[in-house]
Design a protein that fits this description.
Distance between the termini: 34 Å
Family: Belongs to the major facilitator superfamily. Sugar transporter (TC 2.A.1.1) family.
Catalytic activity: myo-inositol(out) + H(+)(out) = myo-inositol(in) + H(+)(in)
Structural class: mainly alpha
Helix content: 55-70%
Keywords: Membrane, Transmembrane, Transmembrane helix, Transport
CATH class of the largest domain: Mainly Alpha
Number of helices: 28
Subcellular location: Membrane
Radius of gyration: 27 Å
Protein name: Major facilitator superfamily (MFS) profile domain-containing protein
Strand content: under 5%
CATH architecture of the largest domain: Up-down Bundle
Shape: globular
């Protein structure tokens, strides 16, 4: 079937030749193409170049095997569109309604079906649960600690302060060690929609349970089981939104998770302020903090009522062989049956490759042993680790009112990311905002040298508010969006378990260790520590985090199959490009990652080994750039200099 480079003549191929091989390569004119660490030299649509009559034959076979003959007409039109998005301009088989819907996809990308926006609303409410679960305990701890006898007025770490920290971070401990790893079995058995229903129900029940506790250890147990609702939900909702969304606005819709988590943080603080002064009534001691904890469960109950009416993920249904159900759900999520048929067939073509890969294989092991999966895991780990170690994991507000402002800014400044994440890109947002966040953390730490109490509070508040302004459109929404789309379907649940367990583990670590770190290094040193991490993470993002905007979830296989060392060299060349363009005022040619991948593979084929050594290539790029500048500015000294040619520039 696949003749990605052919002239379009009809060819006979075997089933295996119609699939990816293990490294993601397509056959070329009856033989397999040479790969670049798993990437074909041609990164185009795998259906492109197939003869019309052969494609139609394949569609008929597909429809017959999957029991879809009653929609064969739509499938044929959809397959042509999957092959070429402009096919409706060349064939007369498309109705005026079909043409309008297809053109609106390009010119009015925010015009989507009610079902898709229903998915967005439900996902947003699920995210608000997350934010409230994280925040309401900040106000409650000021009250339950005294009631349970674990309050400590000392600024030094003590048994009591450690107990409060452990109780507060109990859900994160559960997520990191246990509940995130339930994502895979729950999604396999229940599907995306039912997993969301179950986890939101658990959140509702455990929030009410927390409000009924009578001791610190009982509250710890209740909050630990709250983590069973948080972990799989935080891994499933972004994936669910990603799998239901069209590629053009997928990043914007998936990042609603973080934006509405921020809103939940704001709402949780508002609830704390609203209930803080409520007195004990009816013999109930600590009614105020009990209401705070119970209120966090209300959004969970609302989502439980919504979930039965939401569409299931079409990709999950296809993975279970339920093609008819997948088509019906796509019809709800898209405006026309032709669009639904196009997405159904294209998803099927590429997921068949993943089905071949997963047979008889250990998917946990393959997440780290197959280069494409390992690259996705590395990038997801970096962005998830960065979400906590950039300094966002701590909060020591002087008052709940200041925290309320923090939550409001976190939500408001996440709004720009809705419009920039799919145009500016995930990676670019991170590279732009991390240096700014480092500066803001240094400002915050420096404010602690101010002797005036009011001045110090103002300085710390301004520094953290500025930090939030840069954090919210960048490192705030990107990690969950990125992780939800980085992994191939056959390990997506496991990959998201790994990614979310990473962020919750470091969330737990920071929550428990921040008081001791602040005491040991003083606030200035503690904030400086995280500012330094911001710059370290900027380098890691530059080298190892790939751009994913504008690609379908299946096309990202090609992006992540490019070798890590090739992408790292690409990052270094981007620095050199920026220096030449913005500091030396030159006009260098832009750096193209895919052209680099092709050239490096050609060099490897000729056994030109330097490109196989990252640090040799890195030094070479730097030396080459410095030599070029020396030659341009000081031609007399440049003549006798001999420069070793670089494999990366071949």
């Amino acid at each position: 079937m696949f003749n990605a480079y052919g002239s379009g003549s009809r060819i006979d191929v075997t089933h295996d030749e119609r699939m990816y091989n293990q490294r993601g390569c397509f056959p070329q004119s009856g033989r397999r193409t040479r790969c670049i660490g798993g990437v074909t030299l041609n990164l185009e649509n795998p259906l492109r170049g197939i003869a019309h009559e052969h494609l139609m034959t394949e569609v008929e076979i597909f429809a017959r095997e999957r029991g879809l003959m009653h929609i064969l007409g739509e499938l044929k039109k959809g397959a042509l569109l999957a092959q070429d998005s402009q096919a409706y301009k060349r064939y007369s088989i498309y109705s005026d309604t079909d043409i309008k819907c297809l053109e609106d996809e390009v010119h009015h990308k925010w015009s989507q079906t009610g079902a898709l926006y229903y998915v967005v609303v439900m996902s947003s409410l699920a995210a608000a649960i997350q934010g409230m679960d994280e925040t309401v305990v900040n106000g409650a701890q000021l009250l339950y600690a005294k009631q349970f006898g674990i309050y400590s007025a000392s600024a030094l770490p003590s048994r009591e302060s450690w107990l409060v920290g452990v109780v507060n971070s109990a859900p994160y401990l559960c997520c990191a060690t246990f509940s995130c790893w339930l994502t895979y079995p729950m999604n396999q058995w229940l599907g995306r929609r039912k997993t969301i229903f179950v986890t939101c129900l658990i959140s509702f029940v455990t929030c009410v349970w927390s409000a009924l506790t009578g001791s610190w250890w009982h509250l710890f147990i209740a909050r630990f089981f709250l983590g069973v609702g948080i972990g799989p939900k935080s891994a499933t909702v972004p994936v669910y939104a990603a799998e239901c969304s069209p590629a053009a606005i997928r990043g914007a819709l998936v990042m609603m998770w973080q934006m509405w988590t921020a809103f939940g943080i704001f709402l949780g603080t508002l609830v704390d302020l609203a209930f803080y002064y409520i007195p004990n009534r009816g013999g109930i001691e600590g009614l105020n903090w009990r209401l705070m904890l119970a209120a966090a469960g209300i959004p969970g109950l609302i989502v439980c009522l919504q979930a039965p009416f939401a569409p299931e993920s079409p990709r999950w249904l296809i993975s279970k062989g339920r093609y008819e159900d997948a088509f019906n759900e796509l019809c709800r999520l898209r405006f026309s049956r032709v669009q639904a048929a196009r997405d159904l067939y294209y998803i099927h073509v590429l997921l068949e490759a993943e089905n071949e890969m997963k047979k008889g294989r250990n998917r946990v092991v393959e997440m780290f042993t197959i280069p494409r999966n390992r690259n996705a895991a590395l990038a997801s780990w970096i962005v998830m680790f960065a979400q906590q170690f950039c300094g966002s994991g701590f909060s020591d507000p002087a008052a709940l009112a200041a925290s309320l402002g923090f939550g409001a800014l976190n939500w408001l400044f996440a709004l720009p990311a809705v419009f920039t994440i799919d145009t500016f890109g995930r990676r670019n947002l991170l590279l732009t905002t991390f240096p700014c966040m480092a500066i803001c953390l240094l400002i915050t730490g420096s404010a602690f040298w101010i002797t005036s109490k009011n001045g110090r509070l103002a300085g710390v508040t301004i520094g953290m508010y500025l930090f939030t302004i840069f954090y919210s459109p960048g490192e705030g929404p990107v990690p969950f969006v990125y992780s939800a789309e980085a992994f191939p379907l056959y390990i997506r649940d496991i990959g998201m378990s790994f990614a979310t367990a990473t962020t919750w583990f470091w969330n737990f670590t920071l929550s428990v260790t921040w008081p001791s770190m602040s005491n040991a290094f003083k606030p200035q040193g503690a904030f400086g520590w995280y500012a330094a991490w911001c710059m370290i993470l900027w380098v890691l993002i530059l080298l190892f985090v790939r751009e994913t905007k504008g690609k379908t979830l299946e096309e990202l296989d090609q992006v992540f199959s490019i070798p890590a060392k090739t992408h790292a060299i690409y990052g270094i060349k981007q620095i050199m490009y920026g220096i030449k363009k913005y500091f030396l005022f030159q006009s260098p040619p832009p750096v193209d990652l895919y052209e680099m991948a092709v050239e490096n593979e050609k060099c490897a084929a000729r056994r030109e080994g330097p490109q196989n050594h990252f640090f040799v290539s890195l030094v070479g790029v730097i030396v080459d750039t410095l030599h070029a500048q020396t030659t341009r500015r000081f031609p007399i000294a440049a003549t006798p200099v001999a420069v070793v040619p670089l494999a990366v520039d071949h």
